[in-house]
Write a structure and sequence with these properties.
homodimer, alpha/beta, Rossmann fold, 3 domains, DNA-binding
Chain lengths: ~350, ~350
DNA sequence: CAATGCGATGAATACGTATGCAGGGGCATC
DNA sequence: GATGCCCCTGCATACGTATTCATCGCATTG
């Protein structure tokens, strides 16, 4: 009968109604084989009637884990408040889905790089493990990563995969991607290819792309020209515009631009248009990431696709393995060339 | 001394080291005024040394709330796995930030509409309240919303704001937006304006935009022509393409297209280009949402901007108020016209 | 018939924190 | 010097679940 309960039903309420002990209820609902089928069915029915839900806080407290991962998205404090790097958004989507498939909940948090409480989610038992996204300046963040490792925090980072790294990282093969896309430009007859993007060790992903770029040049018997490289430390459109302006002001000739990210490339396209240069006739432009907008800019952007779906799965998988105490290693994912019109190859629809 | 502790430090460990009771530690760290400054400082220092973090599970269990919100993102099971509606992504960003500002954590979950466990997050005390995004077919989801209300679940929905709704909803003023952008097209001399988007009560947001559209027509002495309206029930590019094909196959003349979402509008642009129709010279095209890509398509898309930042803040604020037991009402947010090239008004840079 | 074993259940306890209640000590007032 | 008061602290307990250990009934076996 519709007895008015104060507050939510607990396992004791179920036990009382079923005429068994709380222990049995707990066992029955967790699927323990110690409970007879008869009792189990009775308990399940009553639980459903009472709309009973296991209290996660109590359950987590008892079991000492939360079946939850935390996604920490770091960003430059200077970034506009409402915008998020579309590439990270795509990763977020695939990570969320991977978590669902594994039965884990996902806690999402934006953090300023200046904060120091990366491990708090795990330390406070809100999450069993961490996924780190958007660690910009590697040299700055490296000491923090080391600290996390020392504390025994379970975490995986999305980013460059380097030798002697303290942490576990998953990243795409940036060097290979940079090499492939440069090869492509060379095959199209381009010889003076500018590179927009930081080449220092501070931003290993960008610099790996640059390294691949240089390898391709050398393999073709060309020498990388420092005058054709412009630093851009962050992946925002404005920096793409400014970089092209720097390039133009230097007065060095160039017939192609390889931007280290699509956002930079889009900025570059805009700056070239402003300067009256035609793409791809006078200048080829290529990017990296294949963000959704890339196929819509004019002309459509040739770029390197990172498999975000696979990446999300791997990140989640690797954290879970760490949590289970299994040995885990960093890994690199393949990068794939996506040819559109901005490079000057045959037109796509 | 570097005493090796097994496991994490607890408030008892701090208490022992500080020579006080566990109660005092708890009070000191929660900022209770019952503790002397002297004791508090001592405890804080020790807590820092031991890298102590309050166990959220225990704390939540005791206090019966989790200081966490859950964002439930519903989507059509047919949607491609890796893509998320960019408008929702933008909302996600602003909601995440709003949560941070309020000191709440955010749990993100994708759900299939077929699932029935919307309230589980609150029932299991994983979250204190829910934010619902992307409830597509309103008539289908309405009974569920009613159920949530009956259960006393704290939740806010992003979507159309209707009379006699059981739940609290926050949405932009779709009718006004539809009216404004149609007025704009009319002012440019367009008279045969096609509308792409479902006009039925199943999708109240689209139908409100359609209603505003019709109001504008009527105010201008024009009658809405059913032949100029094409149903599109979901906001994906492919449907935009198909809708224009339907429109062309009908053979009715039109000089403008108002797509109920930017994604539909982008599909429409593509279909028009394929059909050899020039935008905006022969056909004006406008959308709704102002997703990031909108400014990059060719020609740049005139659209209606929804203030996602404000929306995120309002959603979070309204859930928190419900949690605090304060009375809450639905609200509509203003919509703002963003004029770019696709409508045929003066060119932007 | 006693001994053994097994399947099913209950009692008791731990997880770590927050808080109501009680108490101890110091100081002021009369 | 006794009384009262206030400030601070400690004791004990509740939050709801999962699990170890003990128990009890029943069947099987020698």
């Amino acid at each position: 009968m519709a007895t008015v309960m104060k507050g939510k039903a607990t396992s004791f309420d179920i036990a009382y109604k079923a005429g068994v002990s709380q222990s049995t209820v707990s066992r029955a609902l967790r699927g323990s084989s110690l409970v007879s089928d008869d009792t189990r069915h009775r308990i399940q029915t009553i639980a459903r009637e009472l709309n009973y839900k296991v209290d996660k806080n109590a359950s987590n407290l008892r079991r000492q884990h939360s079946v939850t991962l935390a996604l920490l998205l770091f960003e430059d404090p200077t970034t506009d408040d409402s915008l998020i790097n579309p590439f990270f958004l795509s990763m977020l989507g695939s990570i969320t889905r991977a978590c669902v498939r594994q039965g884990y909940d996902l806690l999402v948090s934006f953090q300023q790089l200046s904060n120091d409480w990366h491990a708090d989610y795990q330390d406070s038992h809100k999450a069993d493990g961490l996924i780190l996204l958007g660690y910009g300046d590697y040299l700055v963040s490296r000491s923090r990563l080391q600290k996390l490792v020392d504390q025994g925090t379970h975490f995986v980072r999305w980013g460059a995969v380097l030798e002697g790294q303290p942490d576990i990282s998953i990243g795409c093969d940036n060097a290979l991607g940079g090499r492939a896309i440069t090869d492509h430009l060379l095959a199209l007859g381009r010889r003076r290819i500018a590179f927009i993007g930081d080449s220092s060790a501070h931003f290993p992903e960008f610099s790996a792309r640059y390294r691949g770029h240089c390898e391709a040049l050398c393999a073709a018997g060309l020498e990388p020209d420092p005058a054709l490289q412009v630093d851009a430390s962050d992946s925002i459109e404005r920096l793409g515009i400014e970089s092209v302006q720097v390039l133009l002001s230097r007065g060095v000739p160039f017939d192609a631009i390889f931007a280290a990210s699509d956002l930079l490339a889009i900025g570059a396209l805009r700056a070239l248009a402003n300067a009256g240069l035609r793409v791809p006739e006078q200048v080829s432009v290529v990017g990296f990431d294949d963000i959704p907008t890339a196929s819509f800019v004019n002309p459509a952007l040739t770029t390197v696709m990172q498999d975000t779906k696979l990446a999300g799965e791997m990140l989640v998988d690797r954290v879970l393995r760490q949590i289970r105490g299994e040995p885990v290693e960093s890994a690199m994912l393949p990068a794939q060339l996506v040819i559109r019109r901005s490079c000057g190859a045959q037109a796509a629809p």
